[in-house]
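Box S2. Input/output pair 1.
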Amino acid sequence: MMNGMKTLALTLCLLVAGAASAQAACYADYKAKRDDPLRLHYGVAEISPPCDQPEAAADELRPRLGSDGWKLLAIMSLFGEDGLEKRRDSAGDYYLRY
């Protein structure tokens, strides 16, 4: 009986850990532009999971950027919290702005 309880406890722990990782924060770094005059920027934005679908990230970012007159040019990459700090300086004012 004790082995069954240990197995159940381990299974529950794995399920909870899996659920937590499924809800982990996702981020995208991207390039955007404005015309007349031409302006470009690189930014980082939080997006909805999952973190492995660039087109879904683009669909989410287009209206956010568009509300300020920016047009999304490209999603550069998708990543988790571990990639945030190394992109902070490059993104400057556009770090988590959209």
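Box S3. Input/output pair 2.
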Amino acid sequence: MLTRNLLSVNVPCLRGFSSAAASFLRTGDTLKLSRIFTSEDVLEYSKVSHDSNPLHFDSESARNAGFEDRLVHGMLVAALFPKIISSHFPGAIYVSQSLHFRLPVYIGEEIVGEVEATNIREQKNRCLVKFRTACFKNGAIVIDGEAMAILPAPAVEQANTSA
């Protein structure tokens, strides 16, 4: 009998779509989404988060602090990660996220969010997935980190156990 360490092998999970052709998530799979954040996005996020830092609303304050212009909230940019995961796996449960803010994001810039599955482990008819997360502008990393999510209703391909 072949025993495998599920932390170091590809354990595919069925994506949360109903489809005749099953798509599986494997270690190394990357999902992306691009977005341009607007002044309205920043205002709406500020209302919900109660973060009214002038760096987000006043160009002069932002320039006085050493930035080119008004900033998009870092946490708003980082919200791309759960959006990417939940849009591919409806019902996913976001477990954790670490973040490193590398560069500022300005209103009107196109940001590409990316999540890459780095570890997949089956657990009680679900998959616990570790993702490398990163956001880019013009190819430069603005935010990176790691996320963990529980993906619902996995389908696991049976490993070939014959010798």
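Caption for Box S3: The longest helix spans residues 39-49. DSSP finds four helices and seven strands in the chain.
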